[in-house]
Amino acid sequence: MEIVVGIDIGGTNTEIGLVDINGNILEFDKFETQKFKNEVEYIETLSQKVKSLVFNKYKIIGLGVGAPNANFFTGKIENAPNINWARKVIPFTEMLSDIFKVDVKITNDANAAAIGEMLYGNAIGVKDFILITLGTGLGSGFVCNGELILGHDGFAGEMGHITAVYGGRLCGCGKQGCLETYVSATGIRTTVLEMLRYSKKESLLRKYEAKDITSKSIYEAAVLGDILAHDVFDFTAKILGEKLADIVALTSPKAIYFFGGLSAAGDYLLVPTKKYMEQNLMPIFKNKVKLEVSALMGKNAAVLGAAALIWKEIK
Amino acid sequence: MEIVVGIDIGGTNTEIGLVDINGNILEFDKFETQKFKNEVEYIETLSQKVKSLVFNKYKIIGLGVGAPNANFFTGKIENAPNINWARKVIPFTEMLSDIFKVDVKITNDANAAAIGEMLYGNAIGVKDFILITLGTGLGSGFVCNGELILGHDGFAGEMGHITAVYGGRLCGCGKQGCLETYVSATGIRTTVLEMLRYSKKESLLRKYEAKDITSKSIYEAAVLGDILAHDVFDFTAKILGEKLADIVALTSPKAIYFFGGLSAAGDYLLVPTKKYMEQNLMPIFKNKVKLEVSALMGKNAAVLGAAALIWKEIK
Fold first, then answer.
1. What is the rounded CA–CA span in Å between residue A177 and residue B250?
2. Which CATH number fits domain A126-293: 3.30.70.2750, 3.40.720.10, 3.30.420.40, 3.40.50.2300?
3. CATH C-level class of B2-115+299-314
4. Pairwise CB contact (< 8 Å): A282 & B163
5. Touching check for A74 and chain B: CB below 8 Å?
6. ipTM (interface pTM)
């Protein structure tokens, strides 16, 4: 049986799935990403794991990889600061295709998730859409004319680093006021802490210690009618909605899908986001763009998306 | 000899050129756009002019049209407010192909200019770039992976209507603070009038009556060292540079080209624009993106771009 190996390289774990053409994960394994001295040792373990999953049962037609700082064009992982063996330029696809003698593709996790959404999620048949991942940061994959927008150097889609507030919060990238410093699990937590400090409103969130406030606790407070939690979502939604309006004017997508921890807030975030987006759209764009949670929430979207890099070419 | 008919429908004139594969305009004619009762009369005159240009000498392999509110996907002009016979939906390409029995393509003028730049200008061989037209408004054409970004409905590329200043200047589209209300021939003129009113600085521009201030007079004052004129370019460049930084993060183009009246200011606008853009870029994008005046300035870019819609398919 023909399968594609989907590999998701995260800061904590590396996950491997054997994925059939319909998006079923037939076999699965994982291991710790950072217990290796260098990329050679890492790739040795990775390929042993893949070989033992495949053993005598499946035919590999390609490997798809999602990884931080991965460049689709060059096939390299370029200075991924959060992975100990990847703080340099690694010709990752070349190393894997030397071993497996099949096509290997790599891209960052948001782009992989976008392709996964297109093949197995809500974006089936949609040629123009955006997938936004709201995790520790804000990642995005742009699909236009049915193709990923990669830019001349492979680094397009950095929506997390457009400026939302000039002179605003310091971002890990070195800039100030980047969208992801407000709209992400980390960003919304900062907003809660600021609001708790500067607002006099009662709030269920006051019972937590700062370190225990997460997007989940904010969501739960909102469900219970907590006004401050609603204010936090409204503040976040206003910033996100305004920026989405700009992005709609530029790329006119049919839909925008949300994935990742903060997306679990669902309508508490997306309803006000849509309201603010609509307020800032030109008339020709109004009431056309759908905001939706990804259909792959709860599934292993990163592995599916990585495998989809190869299946997309074949389909 | 095989030619493509390039047609540029402007608010004042309609220009027609017979364009060979190398971008030479072999024959040319024009007529007033708005002297017709309806689209049927307009198209009758247009096709007579085309036929007499072509007469017994050339073989038409297609017609390309640049027009306001033109939709590449549907081939229609959709409610162009500034053309008297086009304030409704007109199946323009269908009407022309019924007459000429060849392929007809249509798009808005900024998209046509982008394709023209790709075939005949500075963007030859460049697969990821943006063309920005700075005229009465701000238009833009986005090329990614060598293709125009049209969006799901054909209306992508409305960079003039991303919001530069929330609650800012009223725009013709009904929104406030759109980029084109600051960055365009009209926008920079408004900025001059505001600065002359609120600043106490001496300026050569004070000798003009308000109605006589144009992007040309501002440029000429800047050349003579006028501080206020430089302030005006700096103010305009800051807004443009900040927004370009966002757009680079999203699409990572290799170059951004400028066309139209205000672009004639050249370095007076582009040098500070680049400075502000660079200040707002993530490290991975710094010092990579070229800002350049279009190579088609002074040529009939609109006619060339319109013809390029067809030649692009053949090349």
1. 16
2. 3.30.420.40
3. alpha beta
4. no
5. no
6. 0.93
